[in-house]
């Protein structure tokens, strides 16, 4: 992601104090534990021109829940900072297509790839086919559509552990769909889905890899960047 | 006559129930097929409505408005229904509602009733109570008949027998209707049900129904159905008893223009379902001579009191969220241990139990949002699920293993130094679990304790030797710059 | 004395809402609800009729278009095609609709068994909705009580094209003045999809529905 942004002439900062958006806590029912992480986020990132996040579910967490959480915390300065910051928080593909208005970022990736629409990207962020537009503009790529594009892969944070069996059945459907495309790699805008899917693909001893969208867009020589 | 009712108070946890059902491949196939068909039909008829989002927004606002003025509208309904010759009863809970029904049936002189499909009567297990009181209930909806004769339980709020296929239904009918030569086309089966029930329709003197909408402005009641069994029960008996949750009220007749567009398209994927009946009190020379409505609370006021959970009451019971839910599609409805299954069940059931039971249901979701996307009244089910999870966490107290782990992690995430240390520690801790694969990459194939669910079917890649943070700082050092801010 | 259920429920609602809503406030808020959807159909009358016919065909209903002067012949034609010889008719149905050679029984409050003995029923309708292919019947002259259009196995419905509206909202507005009457929306013959989601015609209501549109 850094490589792509710098290639496009942007200055990237990485505030070293950042940690986690708190989604896992919030979504599992530990709202109280997530509150300080919101304050931390605001403190770390305030003043940024744009905050670019490589995971759609983290952005969904910030957009959908931070405002409500800030209301609960009830500090006016915090709310004000958050309101200034939030419109400038972007998921990576969204930043490229919506803020910068780009589809071609000059990448070269001569492989057969399928794209998984993560639920939060699809439904909460409304990414639409922005990520596919970016992929289609990659030179050399052979983009194949997956059956059941809008089906959840079954990750769902702690769901994958609490309801492992159901989660696994959902995942099996997803990996079948991926294998049916005969793609070499499956990409997405969400690391958690990818980790989940990669785990099953590896267990099934398939050579298919998962790769983050940013890694494909960063590629200039066609090599898999791990 | 009925099998063991689905009862959230005694049901196993969701993961346990799901485990059992997921071994039933026939059931999973049936559920998959049925939900696929309805979803496709729904998508087609919703797609032809350019104003669908406007209708959803109108539906949502209308339902929110109704809940905010619920007392006013219930009183209006009562007044207008009574003026039209109906008798309105109020029931604080299922027990009171059942008592009222039994007394009314006895007073009408019947020892049998014909019933229209009603999830509200399922919720309170009315049939069991009627049988105990010596009253025989006949379910007349085809799916409910299949369930009743098969001593089964409903698994979907619109298509309660979708977990059964035609062979299974045929076996039930052959046995229970004594028809050894029954064919197995859906038409044969429907014809058998028609014959079996016609005699009941023509002779049973008391009908019991639920309601889709109670119209405050007119005192009218609206029932939406397909087969005509509903119309039979609403028009042929001499006494009609309708049980409705207090959430079923709508302000005005005009509101049907929104709801009668949203409901059929979402529920069965039809532009309009075959029959909608609207009646108001007693109509001389047309239908029952006595009409009773029971307005039942049964914990709905508790839900109303919770501002974040309140939107649950906006539900119009279309079942679209069930068809769209990837979890429901894997397990079917019985896993939810309640007549309300799927996403709506996951939020409604624990709240109807005032959070005393069914606490695993809010976790029976990957929060993928497919339910919210299809809900015709825009209930933000994922938001309510998270809200209920928070209630469960508070109930469980701060000392469970999960709570401790969550607090521990939150503490790490609150400090950069602790976060760095945790990344280092994580690499050390995982070392004994990591095995190299053929490509020389490290993977974890087994995890202990709470995390074991992950490694049932997935591996976990070891943490990278160099984190992004390390890479970033090395690069900055090389450039002689600072480490960010 | 223990409070009665009514008082208890209403007071729980009021304490849950934290306010006591008034009918006036409710009416004002209701009037402000968003209604950003299609209320009135665009399109010519003939487009509406075409859409209605299309929707009715979708439900497997047969449709016949006739001029008012040919109505009786149209009814005769449909009844012959269905082989219907014993038909129920509601009170107040115009004699001008009734061809010779068919046994018409007027519904003067027949028993359920007597209704069941009629092979079919002939009625008019209050209105029809093009968008959804629905017929709306009310308990008035020419349409009759609800059981009449339900128990017989065949329903032939005569609809004046002047009564065809485009959308559901138009239909509901038109019905507002008579909302207190027993009202039935009929969209195709009785049907179920309860067995493997296969649509099967006719479980308990009429298995056959035909419509005559009168120009
Ligand atoms: S929650 Fe929404 S989608 Fe689910 S049954 Fe209720 S109205 Fe339908």
TrEMBL record, chain A:
Give the species this sequence originates from: Granulicella rosea
Q: Where are the transmembrane segments?
A: none
Record's Gene Ontology CC terms?
A: cytosol
Which terms does the record give in the GO molecular function aspect?
Answer: oxidoreductase activity
Can you name this protein? L-lactate dehydrogenase complex protein LldE
Occurrences of domain Cysteine-rich (ranges)? 2-63, 113-198
Automatic annotation (TrEMBL), chain B:
Q: What's the superkingdom here?
A: Bacteria
Task: Please provide the record's keywords in A-Z order.
Answer: 4Fe-4S, Electron transport, Iron, Iron-sulfur, Metal-binding, Repeat, Transport
InterPro entries the UniProt entry points to: 4Fe4S_Fe-S-bd, 4Fe4S_Fe_S_CS, FTHF_cligase-like_sf, Helical_ferredxn, LUD_dom, LutB/LldF, LutB_C, NagB/RpiA_transferase-like
User: By its UniProt entry, which SUPFAM superfamilies does this protein fall under?
Assistant: alpha-helical ferredoxin, NagB/RpiA/CoA transferase-like
Give the Gene Ontology MF terms in alphabetical order: 4 iron, 4 sulfur cluster binding; metal ion binding
Annotated 4Fe-4S ferredoxin-type domain ranges read 301-327
Q: Does the keyword Ribosomal protein apply?
A: no
Per the record, the GO terms for biological process are: lactate metabolic process
PROSITE patterns of this UniProt entry?
A: 4FE4S_FER_1, 4FE4S_FER_2
Q: Does the keyword Iron-sulfur apply?
A: yes
Please name the PANTHER family in this protein's record.
Answer: LACTATE UTILIZATION PROTEIN B
- Mind telling me which NCBIfam families this protein's record contains? LutB/LldF family L-lactate oxidation iron-sulfur protein
Name this polypeptide is given: L-lactate dehydrogenase complex protein LldF
Q: Which organism is it from?
A: Granulicella rosea
Automatic annotation (TrEMBL), chain C:
Q: Where do the LUD domain residues begin and end?
A: 116-214
Show which residues constitute the signal peptide: none
Give the domain of life.
Answer: Bacteria
Protein's name according to its UniProt entry: L-lactate dehydrogenase complex protein LldG
Could you tell me which species this protein originates from? Granulicella rosea
